[in-house]
Amino acid sequence: xxxxxxxxxxxxxxxxxxxxxxxxxxxxxxxxxxxxxxxxxxxxxxxxxxxxxxxxxxxxxxxxxxxxxxxxxxxxxxxxxxxxxxxxxxxxxxxxxxxxxxxxxxxxxxxxxxxxxxxxxxxxxxxxxxxxxxxxxxxxxxxxxxxxxxxxxxxxxxxxxxxxxxxxxxxxxxxxxxxxxxxxxxxxxxxxxxxxxxxxxxxxxxxxxxxxxxxxxxxxxxxxxxxxxxxxxxxxxxxxxxxxxxxxxxxxxxxxxxxxxxxxxxxxxxxxxxxxxxxxxxxxxxxxxxxxxxxxxxxxxxxxxxxxxxxxxxxxxxxxxxxxxxxxxxxxxxxxxxxxxxxxxxxxxxxxxxxxxxxxxxxxxxxxxxxxxxxxxxxxxxxxxxxxxxxxxxxxxxxxxxxxxxxxxxxxxxxxxxxxxxxxxxxxxxxxxxxxxxxxxxxxxxxxxxxxxxxxxxxxxxx
Length: 463
Ligand code: ADP
Known about the structure:
This protein is an alpha+beta fold and 463 residues long. The protein is built from eleven helices and twelve strands.
């Protein structure tokens, strides 16, 4: 349904409710008011009647004024039902001494406890619906007669009907105004959304640089900005993914070509030459390792990112573990001349998922070896802090530019100038980030161009 229809339906409901309650309560309210007026006036007139300080002329004046003011017929009869005063404010008042009704009313007053009666009835002469009030007139046990008041309800219903009509007109006018405002407002709300939807369709079709425009109001503008940002992010991921395919296929193709070439060489040339064959087989094994590493990294990351992995935390001694990990690089260190210096702190038991944290440390040292400077030095430091243990891995390489630091933890990001001899998948740091985030550990990089980088993270104490 269009948005303006909701507005109009809402307005109609509000007015119908308002109208309904107004009319219902108005009628009741008017009637209650009238009843209380009649009672008050009746009691007042009865009091004045028996007041010795008021002459009969004065009393006549009081009756006239009351009859005029309240639109009331007033009738006072003596105890023998003879008429004493009779004021007619409208038509033929219901009460008259000739009326047979009178005897009935008198006996009702007599039998009532309070000495007064009030009911609603229809004037049999004028057919006007009215309130009839009757009261005994007595003082100090002396019985003077009866007071009767008769006031039509007619003004109530006619007032209500006037108000009803007025309300109807007002309701109609307001609904029309609401209708116009609704169309205007809904257009204002809907038009940026229509524009945003159009742009979103373009985005869905792969046009990532589409600009979302949210004119008019703040929420639409915010939505548009968020979508533009989302578009940019998707575009970034898309570029990264493309780069990844290029990188990965390059990284896959190179070892595969080598594998094929060396396998062919063994078949055709070196098969019978044990020394050459060994050398070629060595290369085949190395290249296979390279492939395995790439595939393993991809699998690790996708497992970590699937959110299905849980932490399996245990307690262990960190310094010992660091020695273990560094020992695993012995082969590289000895063969290629790298030096890994470890500066431990005092023994400390930490509590975390040992397998995963091992992988973090391994990846960081691996990167440091890959990117360190010509001196081939890597420095690993354990620093015990009050709230945990900080591990730092420092190299003496080229360092990382400020704007690149934000990117290196992204999936598949690899610096453009990475060299073939630097074996990498662009996934190592993404795995590091995923594991540290799972543990909720702080991590970061401090890097100085030309001097090297320090990658660090803190294993928090067990709570
Ligand atoms: P890679 O397999 O390319 O090393 P990583 O995710 O481990 O993938 O690293 C992403 C990028 O971060 C690397 O390509 C490199 O540009 C940069 N990088 C990582 N470690 C270092 C380091 N110690 N010194 C300089 N640059 C680094």
